[in-house]
Design brief:
Elements: H1 4-17, H2 25-32, H3 37-47, H4 52-65, H5 69-74, H6 77-83, H7 90-107, H8 116-120, H9 127-138, H10 147-155, H11 164-174, H12 180-193, H13 212-226
């Protein structure tokens, strides 16, 4: 069985040794908002298709004015839009976070659900968002799969999956639950700094000798040189 724990350790070493020290938007959100599950939920919704910098700016502005689900539920939609205008699709997201806030305020008495079943019933909340809330908001082991997690572990050849759900299931079978909390943060940082979607920085990577993507790339270079 693949030693995925060792892989996570090598990722962390490569990031630290090369001074890729910037934390992810969710790590920043957890620290900034003291792990408030509701704020993690709203921040994760806002982060979709948006760069970390814009997400952080929107979250800071939003929660400087609105402190919790009741405040957002009672807010004018146009005011919410102004607060989050730095994120992509802010008009749609403003409606979504207001709707989510109303449900949490009424159905859950202002408390964000701490189980994946109830989280997935909230409008617009998929498995990645729900798992992020569990990990970053409640410190409950889960495996949030975003594009970085899916790309990296498939590139390494650890798994062969076509969609995030299959990736989550596959990783859950080969990684002890006690390591789930650190997986997303480590992989996202690695994907943002080293294992980039286009032109990955393989020279910084400690895993390339066993990486299917790197091996295939090197073989292609050799093949071209021989032609």
């Amino acid at each position: 069985m693949t030693d995925i724990v060792k892989i996570l350790e090598n990722m962390t070493d490569a990031l630290d040794n090369n001074r890729f020290l910037r934390s992810t938007a969710l790590d920043q959100l957890k620290e900034q908002e003291k792990g408030d599950p509701f704020k993690v939920l709203i921040g994760t919704i806002l982060s979709s298709r948006t760069r970390d910098e814009q997400t952080t700016r929107a979250v800071s502005r939003l929660f400087a004015k609105y402190k919790g689900p009741q405040d957002i539920a009672d807010a004018d939609i146009k005011d919410i839009e102004k607060m989050i205008s730095s994120v992509g699709f802010y008009n749609t997201k403003a409606k979504r976070i207001k709707e989510v806030s109303e449900i949490i305020n009424k159905k859950y008495h202002g408390k964000t659900p701490s189980n994946i079943k109830d989280l997935l019933e909230l409008p617009g909340v998929g498995r990645k968002t729900a798992n992020c809330v569990l990990v970053y908001g409640f410190n409950i082991p889960a495996i949030p799969v975003d594009t970085h997690v899916h790309r990296i572990f498939n590139r390494l050849g650890i798994i062969k999956t076509k969609d995030p759900y299959d990736t989550e299931e596959a990783i859950s079978k080969i990684l002890d639950r006690k390591y789930w909390l650190k997986l997303n943060s480590t992989a996202v940082r690695y994907g943002q700094n080293i294992c980039l979607p286009v032109k990955p920085r393989c020279n910084y990577c400690k895993l390339k000798k066993n990486c299917n993507y790197y091996i295939e790339k090197e073989e292609a270079v050799v093949s071209n040189c021989l032609e």
